[in-house]
Amino acid sequence: MMRHSQPHRLTRSRLAARGFTLVELMIAMTLVGGLVAMIYGMFARTSDALIDVDAMAGATDEARFALEMVRNELQSAGSQASPNAAVDPWVRPKDNPMFGLIPYEGWQNSREVYQGNATLQAIGARNPRSAFSGVVMVGAYDFPQSFLISEVSPNGARVENVERGMGRLTRIDPFDISADSAVIADDTDPRAVALTEQAAARGLRISDRQGYMQFVPVRQASIAAGALELTTAAIAFRGEGRMSGLESIDGQDNDYDAAFLDAFWFRVRVDPYDPTNLQLVRHRLDFETLMALNSPTLNQLEGAIVGVDAEAKEANTLVIANHVVDFRVWFDCADTFGAMQPSPLATQWEPATGACLTPPASASEPHLARVAHLRLSMRSENERTNRPHFEVSGDADWLGFQGVEGTMQTYDVDPRNPGAASVVTVQSSVDLANFRMRGL
């Protein structure tokens, strides 16, 4: 009897040696490719989320820093004014007063920044709830401490090389961190730049022992033998038959308390190098030019930025934050008797108007602004295609915005592409100092 086991074993061996079929390979490759795609998709989503979280964290930090800077300078604005402007007999040879806060034409909730070109107009149309406020502040910022001046004349003064004079400006750190006892010899000393280079843009607050104050522009400054020589606008003194002005006893020179004042303009502008980037900036304004303006316009403020040309004006412009999508400023007001008006804080995206920032009609009335509120929103650097752009209006619960009171969640940077950038919002409030700054 013949056995067929050997041929059977040969057939099995041949089958094992021939490998996988094409169909089997294609199925295996499909399964592996799907697995790789799944792993890559999970990695890509995780990486994209991490990038977005990191970008939002950076935007949050930048927004907090920017808002804190504006808040601090708001709190300092008018810090050199009288504690009771309603009754203090300040010197006012001119009728137009100077305030620590100065509104201008279209200062609140403006969308003018979107009118520059077609791209900006399209971005503005896609983000209808985005608007921007601006405000001019006058106060003692760069040199917050007061100092002693002497040899005060009708058009100048001298800061002597003594501890309460130049020592206050150059050798006493305002934060009491360090001290330098070396004397500034002349204008060639690098430390003199901070005092002399911007002097023509600053103001000078002068007060005597009776509390009479004047605010005069500084026109020129120079240093010689450690003393600072200032040339100013007209300074008025109390003379015979005159009830106001700085005291001057028998024509003898007196020492006076003084402080440097700076005028800064905060606003949102278009980045000169990237039209899709909106920047919160701080311009340094010329104090004398600002004093001559009555209810300034936007063009007048642009002309008041320190600098003879565009390059010099840019050098006097500090960029505080990039990728700004909304910046609002509004105020709680007092009535003419000084009592707070019963106006609730804004709870929706549109804040209350700041009508009380307008200077009082009567020069004897104090400013009515009492509390300032700030809201700054910034977007992440890039858009995400998997984040749709929602325009929040009315009942937005169906969009998943429950309980956010209509605040912006996304910002459409490029309407031609799908997706949007995430938005972070920070808000702060500050009690204001007395804002009365009556000038000459």
General description of the model:
The chain has eight helices and 16 strands. The protein is an alpha+beta fold and 440 residues long. It has one domain. The longest helix has 55 residues, at 22-76. The N and C termini lie far apart (133 Å). The chain crosses the membrane at residues 21-43. Pfam families: N_methyl. Keywords: Membrane, Transmembrane, Transmembrane helix.
Tell me, briefly, the overall form. elongated
Q: Count helical runs.
A: 8
Termini distance?
133 Å
The low-pLDDT segments are 83-95, 396-405, 436-440
Summarize the structure.
By secondary structure, this protein is α+β, with helices and mostly antiparallel strands. It contains 8 helices and 16 strands. It is elongated.
Summarize the topology:
Blueprint: H1 5-17, H2 22-76, E1 98-99, E2 101-102, H3 118-126, E3 135-139, E4 147-153, E5 156-159, H4 166-171, H5 193-196, E6 203-207, E7 213-224, E8 227-232, E9 256-271, E10 274-285, H6 287-291, H7 298-304, H8 310-315, E11 317-321, E12 324-333, E13 369-379, E14 410-411, E15 421-431, E16 436-437
Antiparallel strand pairs: 1-16, 2-3, 3-9, 4-5, 4-9, 5-8, 6-7, 6-9, 7-8, 9-10, 10-11, 12-13, 13-15, 14-15
Features:
single chain, 440 residues, alpha+beta, 6-stranded antiparallel beta barrel, 4-stranded antiparallel sheet, 16 strands, 24% helix, disordered C terminus
